Amino acid sequence: MKYKALIVEDEVLSRDFLSNLVREFCPQLELAGTASNVDEAVAFINAKYPRLVFMDIEMQTGTGFDVLQKVNHHNFHVIFTTAFDHYAIKAIKFSAVDYLLKPINLQELELAVAKAVKTMETRADDGRLEMLLQNFRKPAGEDFSISLSTSEGVDFIPLSHIIRLEAKGPYTIFYLRDGRQIMVSKNLKEYELCLTEHGFFRIHNSYMINLKDVKRWVKTDGGYAVMSDEALVAISPKKKDEFMMLMTKRMV
């Protein structure tokens, strides 16, 4: 079975390049069309119902987010394409939606398409695009939500509900305020990149914590933080000074 795909890209060379890559190296896809601006993309999606959309983030007539807000439905998977690793990527990462940096690398394209096809084969719309738009619209300082994919489905968790994260090899365990634990098949480093600016701190090679959930800092026994769920989290000697500075700022 082939899945109908659309490429949304306003630069002719980039559009042709990606079109050729998809036709030659993505046999799972049928390239049903291309769009060079927001209006064309909206019209195609509403009329043709593609299953996968390669979405340029920044176009002369608007953005890929404008397309998502104007279409009549979100019954499709999105892989964003962009030449800029900027603020929009944060919202995309939180929502677990794939993106490709230009110039597009063939291996990264094949991997992203394989992941998209697997998602389309195993479940219908899971709400990621809606959550992505919600995060993108939120003013700075408001609580974001993060998408956590597990073997059972996708959980959408507000960041304020997360107490701590623990690394387990290639997996990460999220410990939540309601007592739940969610294990995802991504390493802790990936979450460190997007959570650090939202009040989280990599306190140890194996742990990342929500600074707002630190109840007490104990300096004896090598140093550890007591969290709101009573967990004791060791502080790496290399992180002590930075942790102390952040906790001091929190108390001001």
UniProtKB/TrEMBL annotation:
It comes from the Bacteria. The keyword Transmembrane helix does not apply. The modification 4-aspartylphosphate is found at residue 56. InterPro entries: 2C-system_Tx_regulators, CheY-like_superfamily, LytTR_DNA-bd_dom, Sig_transdc_resp-reg_receiver. One of its GO terms (molecular function) is phosphorelay response regulator activity. Residues 146-249 form the HTH LytTR-type domain. Keywords: DNA-binding, Phosphoprotein. Residues 4-117 form the Response regulatory domain. Coiled coil: none annotated. This is DNA-binding response regulator. The lineage of its organism: Bacteria, Pseudomonadati, Bacteroidota, Chitinophagia, Chitinophagales.
